[in-house]
Amino acid sequence: LAGLVGTPYDTLMLDELLARPTGTYGSVWFSNCSVLSDASVGKLATFLKAHLAAGGSVLIDGAIGAYGVPAMVGGEPPWRGSGALAGILNVQALGWQDVHGSVVRTAAGNPLASLPGWAPGTVLTQGIADGTDLVGLTDASKPGAQTLLELNGTGGAHPYVVVTQADAGRVLAISGYANDAGAGTPFRNEAPAGFSDNQLLPHLVDATL
């Protein structure tokens, strides 16, 4: 995604990022960071406060820090929720939801509705292959808080991509792009098998600009 929008980037482990001075990066993107130790969540909260106060941006793929480290190797990570991160980011983990078969579509009232392909209710994907951890806005009344894309299926609508101001910065959060739900894939082996005209990725590019 960063490559598609023309953004040079470094790939770091979380400890490497937290060891660097605030302001090293104007934008930080987190992917598959749902399981973190208590100590890492505390350090991350301090980093994010300073980063956003300085006008930095944050992109999150998945529920960041929502699970603790398992007590034993191979064990189930315990649910923690977003804790302090929910207030800092104005984004909270909503937990795993069985949204199998739901499609991603543009949300009503989204601020990008004037762009091609962003008319409210435009379906962008085939039904996703599995449930996933969802994220949503902590306080939808805060400045800049919007749901851009949503999952829609038999269980109703759930947020899929949200954006918000947080202090002087900006946060964009996705409910699981790089995971087994396969929201962004144009091909599926299981029924209904075959190719689909998946439009999720170009819409994510629009959302990051």
Brief characterization of the structure:
The protein has 209 residues and is of the alpha+beta class. 17% of the residues lie in helices and 27% in strands.
Features:
single chain; 209 residues; alpha+beta; 6-stranded mixed β-sheet; two-stranded antiparallel ribbon; 10 strands; globular
SSE map:
Blueprint (H helix, E strand, L loop, with lengths): L13 H5 L8 E5 L6 H16 L3 E5 L22 H6 L1 E7 L5 E4 L25 E6 L8 E8 L2 E11 L2 E6 L12 E2 L5 E2 L4 H9 L1
Parallel strand pairs: 1-2, 2-8
Antiparallel strand pairs: 3-5, 4-6, 6-7, 7-8, 9-10
Question: Could you explain the architecture of this structure?
Answer:
With 209 residues, this protein is of the alpha+beta class. 17% of the residues lie in helices and 27% in strands. It contains 4 helices and 10 strands, in the order H-E-H-E-H-E-E-E-E-E-E-E-E-H. It has helices spanning 14-18, 38-53, 84-89, 200-208, and strands at 27-31, 57-61, 91-97, 103-106, 132-137, 146-153, 156-166, 169-174, 187-188, 194-195. The strands form 3 sheets. The chain has a 6-stranded mixed sheet, sandwiched between helices. A two-stranded antiparallel ribbon has the order 3-5. Helix 2 links the parallel strand 1 (27-31) and strand 2. The longest helix is centred in the first third of the chain and has 16 residues, at 38-53. The protein is globular. The mean pLDDT is 90.
